[in-house]
Amino acid sequence: MDANTRKLERIFDSTITYQVPLFQRPYVWTQEANWEPLWEDIQALLDKHLRGGKVHPHFLGAVVLEQLANPTGSIESRQVIDGQQRFTTLQLFLMAARDHANAHGNTKYAERFTDLVANRRNRIDHDNEVYKVWPTNSNRAAFKAVHAAGSPDALDKIISNEPALKDSTNNVVDGYRYFHYQLTDWLNGELDDDLDEEVLKPKTLDDRFDSLWHVVKDCLQLVVIDLDKDDETQVIFETLNARGEDLLPADLIKNFLFRRADAPTRPLAARMLKGSTPTTGSVSRPTGGERRSSRAASPAPASMSSSTTIWR
Fold it and tell me: Please, what is the angle between helix 152-161 and helix 140-149, to 10°?
């Protein structure tokens, strides 16, 4: 295997699709355990850059990828062996950023963020290849709806016409809403610290989009582990998951069966597993005052040449 540190833009900017295999669990990350810690890390970077400070790279964890064989001339594809929760969450955040740029008529940044969540249609052969990340089957309908909607209001209209997307256990929709709400408040200055009022008061909306793009482009990084053809992907998946965040026995069984299954049997197995769903809570939207008081009560982190948070 080969491990390298990669910035977020480099991971998603090329014409590529990251496929989540069927043996992976559905998207299960939630607001309190995962989205809030990630947003707090990102907001700290945004605030520092907006104030004119030097922002160091921020480590978000690791992903394990397996190169898939593709016909000559087709889009590059990789299978996500570990890190699909992380990849899906980052895509939801980037889609929220794209939608804000579109809503404010900021074409430059709208195009930049779009290139991180969608492959250009003149470069693909199949419709599902437009997505940078293609989730496991139980999350695909919700992910496609979020990708196409453009705003929480438009997403609500799509959901109202598709009863299956109303399922409260689908965290994809809630994750997008959460990041869209946080970006709304941050872009409007509602999350600014009162102590920074003099510094931040002259900042324009373009300044804030510039900080958002700078953080995404240069400050968020992951360790990408690319597997060789001789690596045991099943063993690696179990080692990284069963000995870290708990997996259900069914997750390990699915992993084993799909890695051993012959290609003709996979469609049947996929249909059998299609009903798997995670559990979740609802998204709550803290006010700017609540967010500021929460941040003020937290002790300031020690200064480091680069920040590190592993959120799973």
Answer: 130
Contacts of 192 (CB under 8 A, 6+ apart): 47, 200, 292
Indicate yes or no: pTM above 0.85.
no
pLDDT digits (tens, 9 = 90+) for 260-292: 554 444 454 455 445 444 444 556 665 554 555
Tokens representing residue 9 in the block: 């833009």
Of the two residues 216 and 283, the one the predictor is more confident about is: 216
Residues in CB range of 161: below 8 A, 6 or more apart: none
User: Is 77 in contact with 68 (CB distance < 8 Å)?
Assistant: yes
Burial of 264 (0-12, 13-18, 19+ CB in 10 A): exposed
d(CA 191, CA 3) in angstroms, rounded, equals: 37
Element (H, E) at 50: helix 36-50
Helices 84-103/171-187 angle, 10° precision: 50
**Three-class DSSP labels, 97-159:** HHHHHHHCCCHHHHHHHHHHHECCHHHCCCHHHHECEECCHHHHHHHHHHHHHCCHHHHHHHH
Q: What is the largest CA-CA distance in the chain?
A: 65
